[in-house]
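Anyone up for a design puzzle?
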């Protein structure tokens, strides 16, 4: 998975591309590169490592040109190295490409081309695209791209420039995102909107197998028969500063702090006069006898929380499946199943495959997605958008919180429609949900205790999270967050399961984070807390119904009161901050944790 960008216009493409790549680094950061086309041909600069390495290289040997492409890489085929970095060129140095995706039949293509005497320099699947395009090149770049795309199996978003047609930048996509941005001074292709927002908010979202031909002054679109197609641009309302750090040390902290606003906007869109409300109201839940939720990572954890809320309110069976499992398990879904697909990016490969499998089996699909125009958003029958804005930190926070509130509202609406709750209860529940943003604001004004406690936790090798019922579901997210960014081993357990194994791991000074927002289960979780303390553990007890008093081994952090079904939205905020400050005190690269990527567009 990678980020690509391209520019053609009246300004020097180099700083524009480098700046765009900065905003795409969340898509991968193993290496980066740029190819500029000018009267002397191509100048390609590419380098293993972070974008800063490329910037330094370019600053030492400045290049200039009005057309170019850039790439930031997350390695899939071929190790991260200078040679495997993009852009890639054909043998004759006529065509340069950047690619996001995976070419599944690259070995066959490579063998075929090698037999014709074409030699390859990298181990990547992507290089075959440049070589193939060059071997097919007829002098007409649109024809070339069509022939090339027809020969490729797999996924791609491609930016292509060709020496024979120095006034064009060409792009095509399949199963990976690509947008076209248009501005006064020139035109862009990019994997995502923030990469071009400094220049324009007018964008076209590309569909699979559409071809874009950009010139200095405009853009034209074609289908795979080479016929022109008409597309309407959209105006993006995200401003660039919303995609910047906003003064915080890390995007993750900025995004945690943005949560009250995100909650408010998302709730408003679903219970006020927003598109989400219209979609929720249009859904006839009585058509379905089952709900299946499928997602990956944190989005899966949001599904785990939702299971408790849906089952409690709707009295309906809800199954939650990891998308990577769902896609291969012969899932029990049919036309009577509502499959809810949750994904921040809307581009996670496993989740896309699960969605398509559900559709193939006749299920109705409803997605909860943050990225407008993303694959999942476009392909599901219904889409609810989280109004979280661009999320840059790899570890999700605000998008997760926005997913939760949409799921709550959906559950309340379904329960009302199914007659499982009265109108008054429905209203009361929506009021509880609407109170979350203010409660979150209050919590974010009192982050000192979490910050201080986290500072004492950097030395742990392992941290356990426990909770019961819905507190267990959010413990899963607390644990995932911690391991993602602090590299401390961590596991979440249902409190009642401790005695079935995990308790053997509790020894002197093990840290256990316990969550307690289900008042009716307080005594149960408290007895788990006592059990681990008596075996030498230290406990950080987070909740809103805690009756215990703090002690040498017991730290207590209070949460505001809220209906237990919606409490995960509050507990998760301190769990996120706990992980953040542990990682910050370890001096780690919080926004780009090792080996992880924000948007996993490969299997
Ligand atoms: C990656 C990210 C996770 C994220 C998961 C699902 O693994 O590192 O933070 O939860 O993908 O992403 P999605 O975009 O589908 O929500």
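Challenge accepted. My sequence:
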């Amino acid at each position: 998975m990678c980020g690509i960008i391209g520019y053609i216009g009246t300004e020097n493409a180099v700083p524009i591309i480098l700046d765009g790549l900065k905003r795409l680094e969340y898509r991968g950061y193993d290496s980066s590169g740029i190819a500029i086309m000018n009267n002397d041909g191509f100048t390609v600069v590419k380098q293993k490592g972070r974008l800063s390495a490329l910037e330094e290289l370019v600053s030492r040997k400045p290049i200039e040109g009005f057309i170019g492409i850039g790439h930031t890489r997350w390695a899939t085929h071929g190790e991260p190295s200078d040679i495997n970095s993009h852009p890639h060129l054909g043998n004759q140095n006529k065509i340069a490409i950047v690619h996001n995706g995976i070419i599944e039949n690259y070995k066959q293509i490579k063998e075929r081309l090698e037999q014709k005497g074409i030699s390859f320099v990298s181990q990547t699947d992507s290089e075959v695209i440049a070589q193939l395009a060059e071997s097919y090149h007829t002098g007409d770049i649109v024809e070339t791209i069509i022939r090339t795309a027809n020969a490729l199996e797999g996924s791609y978003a491609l930016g292509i420039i060709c020496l024979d047609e120095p006034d064009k930048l060409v792009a095509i996509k399949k199963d990976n995102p690509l947008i076209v941005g248009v501005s006064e001074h020139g035109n862009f292709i990019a994997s995502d909107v923030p990469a071009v927002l400094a220049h324009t908010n007018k964008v076209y979202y590309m569909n699979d197998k559409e071809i874009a031909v950009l010139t200095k002054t405009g853009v034209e679109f074609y289908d795979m028969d080479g016929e022109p197609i008409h597309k309407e641009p959209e105006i993006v309302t995200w401003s660039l500063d919303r995609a910047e750090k906003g003064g915080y040390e890390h995007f993750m902290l900025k995004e945690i702090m943005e949560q009250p606003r995100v909650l408010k906007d998302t709730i408003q869109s679903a219970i006020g006069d927003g598109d989400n409300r219209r979609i929720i109201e249009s859904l006839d839940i009585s058509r379905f006898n089952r709900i299946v939720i499928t997602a990956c990572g944190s989005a899966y954890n949001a599904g785990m929380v939702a299971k408790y809320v849906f089952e409690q309110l709707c009295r309906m069976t809800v199954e939650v499946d990891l998308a990577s499992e769902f896609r291969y398990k012969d899932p029990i879904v049919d036309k009577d199943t509502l499959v809810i697909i949750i994904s921040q990016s809307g581009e996670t490969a496993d989740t896309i495959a699960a969605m398509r499998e559900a559709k193939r089996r006749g299920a109705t699909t409803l997605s909860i997605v943050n990225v407008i125009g993303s694959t999942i958003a476009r392909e599901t029958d219904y889409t609810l958008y989280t109004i979280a804005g661009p999320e840059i930190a790899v570890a999700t926070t605000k998008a997760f919180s926005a997913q939760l509130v949409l799921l709550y509202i959906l559950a309340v609406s379904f329960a009302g429609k199914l007659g499982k709750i009265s109108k008054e209860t429905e209203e009361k529940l929506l009021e509880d949900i609407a109170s979350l943003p203010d409660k979150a604001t209050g919590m974010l004004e009192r982050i000192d205790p979490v910050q201080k406690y986290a500072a004492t936790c950097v030395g742990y090798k392992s941290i356990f999270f426990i909770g019961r019922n819905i507190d267990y579901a959010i413990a899963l997210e607390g644990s995932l967050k911690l391991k993602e960014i602090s590299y401390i081993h961590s596991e979440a357990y249902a409190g009642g399961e401790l005695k079935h194994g995990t308790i053997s791991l509790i020894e002197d000074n093990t840290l256990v984070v316990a969550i307690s927002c289900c008042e009716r289960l307080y005594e149960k979780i408290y007895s788990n807390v006592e059990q681990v303390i008596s075996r030498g553990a230290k406990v950080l007890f987070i909740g809103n119904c805690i009756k215990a008093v703090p002690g040498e081994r017991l730290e207590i952090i209070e949460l505001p009161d809220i209906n237990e079904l919606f409490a995960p939205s509050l507990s998760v905020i301190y769990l996120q901050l706990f992980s953040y400050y542990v990682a910050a005190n370890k001096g780690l690269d919080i926004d780009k944790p090792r080996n992880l990527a924000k948007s996993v567009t490969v299997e």
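A detail worth pointing out: Residues 296-299, 343-345, 348, 351, 394-396, 596, 598-600 surround 6-O-phosphono-alpha-D-glucopyranose (CB under 6 Å).
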